[in-house]
Description:
The chain is mainly beta. The chain has a domain at 1-45. Helix content is 10%, strand content 44%. It has two helices and 26 strands. Helix 1 crosses helix 2.
Amino acid sequence: MHDVENEIREMLYERSGDIAFDPRIPARVVRRSRRRRVVTAGAAALGAAALVLGVVAGLRAFPLSDGKGDVTGRPSPAGEGMPSSFVGLKDGELVVASTETGEVLRAIADRSIGTGDLEGELEPAGRSALSPNRSTVYFSLFHIRADGEDRRLARVPLEGGEPEDLGMGFDPEISPSGDHLAYRFCTEDGCGRALVLRDLRTEEETRVEVGVVDLGVDGSVWLPDGRLVVLLAPTPMDAGRPSEYRVVDPSRPPAALVDAPSVPAPTRDTSRGGLYGYHAPTGGVVIGQQRVKGRVGGVVQYADRRRYVSVDPDTGELLATVARGDWWQIHPDSSGRHLLLVDFKDRVYLSRDGGEPQLIAEGFSDVAW
């Protein structure tokens, strides 16, 4: 049975990029496809490594639990650094919800921010990002055309107001200083052929092309020092190619993303995929890993379940296991001790200080805090 399931996942992985990079597919299908891509690519590209539990002399031990929310790092009081609310997309509206209860506190922007598709169904916003001072929400919009759709960026005050259109783009990520915005470059033909770096103080932009035709930008995470880790995922031209992680210095951008320093890959029997956030306690970026056991009848076999780990962006060293399970999104808070997680059924969980994730809300297709 597992062989059949793995064969199906392999097939879906090979085809998942076709939708993710094709703007002509309705946005709701793109979003589902990207989730499926994480599932299938995760099944084909997530890895594991041994966890080391250190004890610092004179200080408290570094805790490690066996649940989904495995985290190593210095303990902190429960709730420290954890925002009292998060931003999310629920029923087509951009809303603010309580971290404690998941209750919707207010709407930032209603369904009118979306546009109707060719069947009259409203396509809502997606991929939200909150500025570090929690004053502004950046998000993506889908504008439907007769022959496809355009993906555009917008921003709106957290307190609500008229969204401001920022032009074409997708997957906004705000720098820790709040001065720069990174996003996937989009045209009418699709997204991901370049990374755009926008200086929010001057509105000047720098565009860095990928540099090869079989990889595309599929996400980015800012580091505290102002650098950016960029995920390059295989395009439909070569869906079987491994993803790559590149470290970009916006002050000295490379001629092409493939020319930027690479995050070293793990051992040959470990594969990786996804890019989920910065983990402050360890100073690493959160990616997915899974150990490859071997192949049976041409189908990849995995030795353990999915893990999400923190790795050093310069050395590729495994620093900690951050979470286990099947997650669509993982969002560490500024302290890195608490996680906001979304599964593939639009359910939101909260993991406090490395504890077992607890369900707090349902019906959210996207969150940020």
